[in-house]
Amino acid sequence: MSSMQTNSRSGSPTSFIDAANQSITVNGIPFAYRDTGPATGVPLVLFNHWGAVLDNFDPAIIDGLAQTRRVITTDYRGIGNSGGTAPLTVGEMADDAIRLIRALGLKTVDVLGFSLGGFVAQDIALKAPDLVRRLILTGTGPAGGIGIDKVGTVSWPLILKGLLTLRDPKFYLFFTSSANGRRSASQYLRRLKARKNNRDKGPTPRAFMRQLKAITAWGRQPRQALGRLRTPTLVVNGDNDIMVPSVNSFELARLIPDAQLVIYEDAGHGGIFQHHTDFVAKAQAFLDA
Fold first, then answer.
1. I need a labelling partner for 136 at 20 to 30 A (CA). Which of 77, 110, 142, 263 fits?
2. How far apart are CA 10 and CA 36, in angstroms?
């Protein structure tokens, strides 16, 4: 865990594991968020995976990115400390996100989505192209993408394996089973536990299941017109993603005009966590280009 110091809104040094839990009310619903990094340039807004709360954002990635820009992380509606009921569609999550970004007073943002967050990020960019300057899509795929509607089928046995081996299921779901993958998994899960105080609350089983329905529906819905996207886009994944099969990252790079593609070898769904230093460098270069 790096001891990198960044500046919070108040100007006091902070890192993600010490960032204050904040809340903003949008359409009568409180949305939980954290806000780190210098208040300069275009803010970067992050959207996370199925069942994720604020403490599931990788501090190594947030602190790395927040060295040079303002980074805003948030909980979806009905998850963690956000109020309301978890939406049953990605489209509603994207609508929430657009309203949240505007409620924060932001006119232009960069967006980084991981997994489910990548579905949401695509939908934000299609619905509000004037809002999104640059787009980073990681461990994700297009609507109607191969195997996306099977995420539950793939995940349940490994969630059960996690329970039986007393391991976080992400150990099996996000990383390859090589020595390299297992070592990276352990390091990543350790980073997620680094915050000791004021942790976010985990998802309820109901919210978890409602999000799975939204993911399954995304996997079954028709392809979106990604060829219309004029937003510069970076697509990143491991070469062996079992949750959102890696073929979907190649497909995104093909469908989105001039998209850049980064594929990490011997890496899975969580390739950006396994290669967090390299990913941060590539993301910064892309955002600053």
1. 77
2. 10
Q: Tell me the longest C-alpha to C-alpha distance in the chain.
A: 48
236 φ, ψ to 5°? -135, 135
Query: What secondary structure, in 3-state letters, does the chain show?
Result: CCCCCEECCCCCEECHHHCCCEEEEECCEEEEEEEECCCCCCCEEEECCCCCCHHHCCHHHHHHHCCCCCEEEECCCCCCCCCCCCCCCHHHHHHHHHHHHHHCCCCCEEEEEECHHHHHHHHHHHHCCCCEEEEEEECCCCCCCCCHHHHHHHHHHHHHHHHHCCCCCHHHHCCCCCHHHHHHHHHHHHHHCCCCCCCCCCCCHHHHHHHHHHHHHHHHCCCCCHHHCCCCEEEEEECCCCCCCCHHHHHHHHHCCCCEEEEECCCCCCHHHHCHHHHHHHHHHHHHC
Q: Is the pTM above the cut of 0.90?
A: yes
Q: 256 is written with which tokens?
A: 């989105």
Q: What is the mean pLDDT of the chain?
A: 95
Q: pLDDT digit string (tens) for 102-117?
A: 999 999 999 999 999 9
Assess contact for 77 and 84: CB atoms under 8 A: yes
Number of Cα atoms under 13 Å in the Cβ half of residue 248? 27
Task: Write down all domains in the chain, each with its CATH number in brackets.
Answer: 6-288 (3.40.50.1820)
Q: Which residues, other chains included, contact 85 with Cβ-Cβ below 8 Å and sequence gap of 6+?
A: 77, 78, 207, 210
- pLDDT (tens digit per residue) in 130-187: 999 999 999 999 999 999 999 999 999 999 999 999 999 999 999 999 999 999 999 9
